[in-house]
Structures are given as C-alpha cells and as structure tokens.
Amino acid sequence: MLVFLLHRFSGLLEQVESHSSGDSRVFLTARIALASVTSFLMAILLGPMAIRWLQSRFRERVDSASERLNEIQANKNATPTMGGLFVVAAVVVAVLLWGDLTSRYVQLGLFAALGFSSLGAVDDWIKLSTTRNGLGIRQKLVVQLILGLMIGWVLYYEHVDHPHGLELIWPFGDYGVWLGGGFVLWAVLVIVGSSNAVNLTDGLDGLAGGCTIFAGAAFVALTYLAGHMVMAEYLSIPYIAGAGELSVVVGALVGAVLGFLWFNCYPAQVFMGDTGALAVGAILGLAALVTRQEVLLVIVGGVFVIETLSVILQVGWFRLTGRRLIACSPLHNHFLFQGQHEIKIVVRFWIGSALLAIVGVASLKIH
User: Is residue 316, in this structure, part of any structural domain at all?
Assistant: First the structure.
C-alpha cells in the first residue's frame, strides 16, 4: 500500500529516492521494520479475540499413537488450536500495508502463506470436527506437491535469466551445481520438506514458534542481502534483483510469530495447528529458494531438520529391527519420555536454533 501510494505520487517518490537503500526505491529497511512491528501488534491485539473464538469452536484433541505420550500431554486437551489463522492474517495485512505488491516474490510469499495455511486449516478442521485424524497422508501430500509445483514454475521463470538463479549454491566456497529444469522439482522438495519439518516440530508449547523466530530473522537478513547488489558482491552470494522485497514478508512472519508466542509459551493458551505450521515452513522454504541458499536453510533451520530426521530414522529403524531408536519421535518427545520438563526442552532447542542461525549467517564469509 505504501509503495503504491509513493509510486502514485511520483513527486514524493523522487524526494525519497535519494535516501533509499538496496535495490528498493522506497525505504526497504524501514518497511521491513514496519511490517514486523505491524504484524506483531496485530497478533497481540487479535490474539485474545481469536483465542476466545477458537475456544468455542476448535479445541485440541490429544490422540497420538502413543498412549504414554497421550498421558504426558493430557493437560493440553481442549486447548484452542488453529491459532495459525491469526498469525497468517497478521502477516497478510502487514505485507499488504508495507510490501511492494507488484513484486513477484511478494506475490509468491502471500500465495505460500494463504495456500499452505488453507491446506492446514482443512486438515485441522477435519481432525477436530470428525473422528478422522485429519486429511490422509497422500491427500495432504498431493496438495502440498501441487502448491510447491506452482511456486517452483514461477520461480523458474523468474530465475532463468539470473547468472546463478538455477544453481544449487554451496555456501562454503564459490561454486554451485546447475539444476536447469530440475530446479522446479528441487523447489517442490524444498518447500514441501520445509513445510512438513516445521509441522513436525510443533509439538511443545512455544517450540516451533521460537525456532521460527531465529530462522526467520536469519532469512530476513539473507533476503535483504541477496537483493542488495553491493552487499551481495561483498559476501560473494548470488545477487537476485528484487529479492529484498521478500524480506518484508519474512519480517512480517517473524513479527507475527513473536506476537503469537506471547500466547503460545508454556502453558499455551493456543496452539498454531497445521494452519500455521505448514504456512511458516513454506515461507522459510520460499526464502531459501529465492536467495539460492537452500543449504543454509538446512543449517539455519537445523532444529527442524533434526526433528524430521528423528522421525525418518525412527520409522526406518523400527521396520528394520522391530525396535525403537529413541523413546518417541520427533526428538522433543524423546526428552519428554526421559522426564525432562517441557520448558527445559523448549528453551534448549531455542538455544540450539539461535546458535545455528548465527553459524548459518556467519558462514557467508567462509570461502
């Protein structure tokens, strides 16, 4: 909205152009901050009303395959869920106010947020209003693949003319692997994988939210730097014209999740649900693809990766040996089974996420 108005009144635009930075003509740094603050305030202000509304309609049903886990988390029964609705709403409003809506990357950010959130909302609704445990795995995966494919095709045509736009970049050196048309399938894998990874991590009060804030903050910086010609050249990372605009979307995500964490910290007043978790992961995956920093996403989002690997290894090991590798997957449940308090587990995972975010960003200058 702000960008539209400034372009509409070209005289005002000319006055502010000389003070702008990066590849944006209209105060990109300020708009990132404004988007973050706006989404945070919206989440804080909408939170109590949204929680009351969710309380009367959508309450968590603790019903996992593990009886012991159900006993440990019995106190979470009837907690309002689908809180991702007001997280995504805060992101969308903030982006509409402060983002450049003519930017293809901003459009993709909004599409990822709304598309994956809608899928998660349907899954949550089925889970809460019927005896089924949400959408079937195949149904859910097919929709994720379709959404990821749509984003991948658009990104392919946006990046095809960039010198490094279709390369898989290795951050510890100046080389990459050219993907060509395979970029589309790679994009699907990254977005679907990231979306599901955040969803798997969302199992304890504040866990996914806190890790998202650290990973998201890192990608606010990465998207901004990738869209800044001078800084991109200095750091020897691919310069992607217009990528800086996506930092408004990611900044709005960080602000919204920070506001959501106000209500989601232990003991949680509301859960994010698939409605929020799938959208959060999709936006992080999109940011990695736009900046060509998928390898850094593995580092920065290391907690999400480890949680996902714990599930894959647990299932694989059980099928091979008939025994469990850890007490219960994802990994955070293993520590619950060991008797550790939920707050201790969450804070330690936050610390790990913060350190990984620092390592990820710092690795940009290791050549």
Answer: yes
Rounded Cα–Cα distance for residues 71 and 74 (Å): 5
Chain centroid to CA 115: 13
Q: Is position 327 within any domain?
A: yes
> Over the chain, what is the mean pLDDT?
90
DSSP-assigned letter for residue 169: E
Mean pLDDT, residues 145-170: 92
Share of the chain above pLDDT 70, in %: 91
Residue 310: its pLDDT value, please? 96
Percent of the chain with pLDDT over 90: 72
Alpha-carbon distance 246 to 107, whole Å? Answer: 9
Q: What is residue 185's three-state secondary structure?
A: helix
C-alpha span between 215 and 213 (Å, rounded): 6
Q: What is the pLDDT of residue 27?
A: 87
| Environment class of 7 (CB within 10 Å of its CB; exposed 0-12, middle 13-18, buried 19+) | middle
- Whole-angstrom Cα distance, residue 139 to residue 183? 24
CA distance 70 to 62: 6
Instruction: Using alpha carbons, select from 331, 329, 324 the residue that is nearest to residue 346.
Output: 331
Which residues, listed in sequence order, are joined to residue 59 by a DSSP beta bridge?
80
66 phi and psi, to 5 degrees? -105, 115
Report the sign of the C-alpha dihedral through residues 306, 366, 210, 272, in that order: negative
Domain of residue 301: give its range: 27-365
Query: Does residue 114 carry a pLDDT above 70?
Result: yes
Place of tokens 């936050």: 350
| 202 occurs within a structural domain | yes
Q: How far apart are the first and last CA of the chain?
A: 40
Please count the structural domains in the chain.
1
267 found inside a domain:
yes
Query: Among all chains, which residue has been given the structure tokens 């850094």?
Result: 296
Cα 144 to Cα 150: distance, rounded to the nearest angstrom? 10
The mean-pLDDT minimum among 129-133, 140-144, 189-193, 223-227 falls in 129-133
Which sign does the torsion angle of CA 150, 158, 294, 362 carry? negative
